[in-house]
Specification:
Structural class: alpha+beta
Number of domains: 2
Radius of gyration: 19 Å
Strand content: 15-25%
Number of helices: 5
Largest sheet: 7 strands, antiparallel
Oligomer: single chain
Strand order of the largest sheet: 1-6-4-8-3-2-9
Number of strands: 9
């Protein structure tokens, strides 16, 4: 089977639950085995912070998980676990300046699957949609991203004399570099073409690869409800929990 491209929109848009109001900014997280109860718990979560009907939300999330897992590469065992997130946001200026970035490696790969393209799936249930730069500009975009990181993350590649370890920046250095890079990329990418996402479309984008799509959260000019999922084996997602100090099989919200 040929490798999946780094970005795609799944063919069938999903019906969205009516959501016209968000009461607070909050997040639902789950790391663990795929289970029918996920749709129930995540839709119950949504009913506590939006005006959605939980039955409508559960139908959409069930369809989202089924479509995403079917599209994901691998055997049933290789995609038996997931990280499911639902982000609910009130309007803010947090992303008035886009945060252009690539998603890094999410967990250590199972042996023999290091070369398999891994992806995250995303669906906007309400509000502004994710910003993604079009793949046809990939080479230019990736060169610009690398140039910016080399310019502002000055400590990368600077060892302590043995040529093996990077010099560690202070927290102040890191925050300053992130702000400078963010503003520089916003200017560099302001005229770049963006992927056009329509209502109900599920977008897939790879993570942890050199050609993973460059994307950003949208400007939060209104309420937003956004759901993402990525899949892996039980061992991979358990390793992810170790990296993130999360508990496998537990819902957090």
């Amino acid at each position: 089977m040929p490798p999946q491209p780094p970005h795609a929109i799944l063919p069938d848009p999903l019906p969205l639950p009516p959501i016209s109001a968000v009461t607070k900014t909050t997040t639902y997280n789950y790391y663990g085995p795929i289970s029918p109860s996920l749709s129930t718990s995540s839709s119950t979560f949504l009913s506590t912070c939006t005006n959605t009907n939980p039955q409508d939300a559960a139908r959409t999330i069930t369809a989202f998980l089924l479509a995403s897992q079917k599209d994901c590469l691998g055997t049933a065992e290789q995609k038996a676990a997931c990280w499911l997130t639902v982000r609910v946001s009130k309007p803010s200026d947090a992303f008035q300046v886009p945060r252009w970035h690539q998603d890094g490696v999410m967990f250590p790969y199972d042996e023999g699957r290091e070369g398999v393209v891994r992806s995250k799936y995303a669906l906007t249930l309400a509000g502004p949609r994710t910003l993604i730069l079009e793949g046809e500009q990939g080479g230019d975009v990736l060169r610009t991203l690398k140039e910016g990181e080399e310019r502002y993350y000055w400590w990368r590649g600077k060892g302590n004399g043995d040529g093996k370890r990077e010099q560690k920046p202070s927290d102040e250095d890191l925050y300053e570099a992130e702000d400078l890079l963010r503003n520089w990329l916003a200017e560099e990418f302001k005229d770049k073409k963006r992927v056009s996402l329509e209502e109900g479309q599920v977008v897939r984008f790879s993570w942890g690869r050199e050609d993973s799509p460059v994307h950003s959260e949208p400007d939060l000019v209104g309420d937003r409800v956004f759901v993402t999922v990525l899949f892996g084996s039980e061992r991979e997602v358990r390793s992810m929990c170790e990296w993130r100090c999360a508990e496998y099989g537990k819902v957090e919200w």
